[in-house]
Amino acid sequence: MDAIRFAVTLAVLYGAHQVADHWIQTHDQACDKALPGWAGWRANLGHVATYTAILAAALALVGWRYHLGYAPGWVAAGLAINAVTHAWADRRAPLRALAVAIGKKSYWDEVPGGAYQLDQAWHYGWLLASALIIST
What we know:
By secondary structure, this protein is mostly helical. The protein has one domain (2-134). It has helices at 2-24, 27-32, 37-65, 72-90, 93-101, 105-110, 114-134. Helix 4 runs antiparallel to helix 7 (114-134). The longest helix is centred in the middle third of the chain and has 29 residues, at 37-65. This is Transcriptional regulator. It comes from Microtetraspora fusca. Keywords: Membrane, Transmembrane, Transmembrane helix.
């Protein structure tokens, strides 16, 4: 059951991520979340709050429907880690700095869609970690 719960959890998080990051996030949040100061943080945290709520709702629905027996503490921990890493990356400058530090500067700056691809890969990696925690 553990492997199945993990696989279902990862699939749910991935699907909910796609909806929350692309459909639920507002245009203003997308445009403003990397701005300096409070305006950027307000947009960023608004996005992350709705994003996390969508993930939590999806987990609750699927967990209830398929009797996955999630432990609330592990769900909270997995969603918290995902929210923090999502907010960090969506400020853009920290994630770009990481990309530069590991030799991905030209990919980030020059490849069409490169910044977006690295951003999404970051999020997917943390979805994987979150699924491991949540399905414990």
